[in-house]
Amino acid sequence: MVRMSDLPRRPDTGHPPDPIVELELKYGHEGKVKSESYQNTCNPHMYESFRFEVPVNDLGNQTLCFRVIDLMKTGIPEWGDEERDRVSDERVAIPRPPVSFAADELGQEGQMLLVSLAYWKPSEKLTVVVMKGKNLKFIDNSRKPDPFVKLYIMMGAKRLKKKRTLNKKRDANPVWNEAFSFNIPHRLLHRVSVMLLAKHHSERGRERLLGKLVIGATSSDETVDHWNAMCTTGKSVARWHHLIEEK
């Protein structure tokens, strides 16, 4: 779902609604899925993706139903001591708005990660796409890693949310193209950062840190430029970053 337009105002007050969408696939599929809620708008920009597992032979018998509901609430809830519960997240498809790439790849040496950032102000949604890695270091100098990326939404030193990509097998140049979306109020965007940890997953289930990356308004020169470009362009901005190896 990309966006809705010209939703009716509330007849009693004339205020815009707080819309949410319920989706249901009829015939043989139980349960419903819901979009995130959007406050005080008749024209929400959504950029949300949902997946239904349907055998190809059953497609002709299916009906996808959309139900738009007004939650009858006003305003955005204040964030107090329960920031962790106020941030919602979901794994989504790669965003459809245009992606702006940096002109260079910061050189070819060292461990690198290609990350795309987007912030949709109307829906207050931050989308982080872990696209691919490059030159990830070998394990014990002999074998390629089994890499994955852990992603944290940070506010200062506090971890609000955690997600991770899938594991890749013996790949020093993995391609993930996995996207994660989080609701972040615009007034708190300058206090939030994204921390990404590239790790090796051993056969014994242990994790070994390969490198670290932090992107936010108060991060290093290289990454803060990426963050500022995301905030000002209104597009998905993808850039390469060097991973920091912690000793």
From TrEMBL:
Protein name: C2 domain-containing protein
Species classification: Eukaryota, Metazoa, Cnidaria, Anthozoa, Hexacorallia
Residue stretches making up the C2 domain: 1-103, 105-241
Pfam family of the protein (one): C2
InterPro entries xrefs: C2_dom, C2_domain_sf
